[in-house]
Amino acid sequence: MNFRQRFNKFFIGLAIGTLLCIILFGGRDWFGWAPNARVLKRLNETELQITERARCLMDCRQISDDELYYLLENGNVRFNLSEVHQEPLIYIVDAAKNEGETYRMTFAAGDSTSTVTDVEWVGQDEKCDC
């Protein structure tokens, strides 16, 4: 058996194995084990509270509750800015609102509640009276 025949048999086996994996395990969340997905899942599963200051900043910067829930589904957790070695855990999550506009929210995550404590625009110095 030459190399070409071996390669063809290998490729056919690889294709059959891939198809079987897609059929058997197709509905799974393949990246649910990643740290970013685990943190967002934890924040979604707890009761969400918003401090008065954070609500004022959201209103000032025109960030709706829908955008908050979008951030909790598709946001990017900034582990280098977060404080995960204290209680409650402080997570900083950001997401793009429009082209070139990014907002960042700070969450204090407890056992059963998550509280939005701060809201900021990244790279903009918009002042609010909060």
How would you summarize the topology of this molecule?
Elements: H1 3-25, H2 35-45, E1 47-50, H3 52-60, H4 65-74, E2 76-77, E3 89-98, E4 101-109, E5 113-121
Parallel strand pairs: 1-5
Antiparallel strand pairs: 2-3, 3-4, 4-5
Helix pairs in contact: 2-4
Question: What attributes does this structure have?
Answer:
alpha+beta; 5 strands; elongated; 130 residues; YaeB-like fold; 2 domains; single chain; 4 helices; 5-stranded mixed beta sheet
Notes on the protein architecture:
The protein has a five-stranded mixed β-sheet with strand order 1-5-4-3-2. The protein has helices at residues 3-25, 35-45, 52-60, 65-74; strands at 47-50, 76-77, 89-98, 101-109, 113-121. The mean pLDDT is 89. Helix 2 packs antiparallel against helix 4. It is of the alpha+beta class and 130 residues long. It has two domains: 1-29; 31-121, YaeB-like fold (2-Layer Sandwich). It is elongated and about 80 Å long. The longest helix has 23 residues, at 3-25.
Q: What amount of the residues lies in strands? A: 25-35%
CATH topology type of the largest domain = YaeB-like fold
Total discrete domains: 2
Order of secondary-structure elements:
HHEHHEEEE
Structural class: alpha+beta
Strand order across the biggest sheet? 1-5-4-3-2
Strand elements, count: 5
Low-confidence stretches: none
Short description:
The protein is of the alpha+beta class.
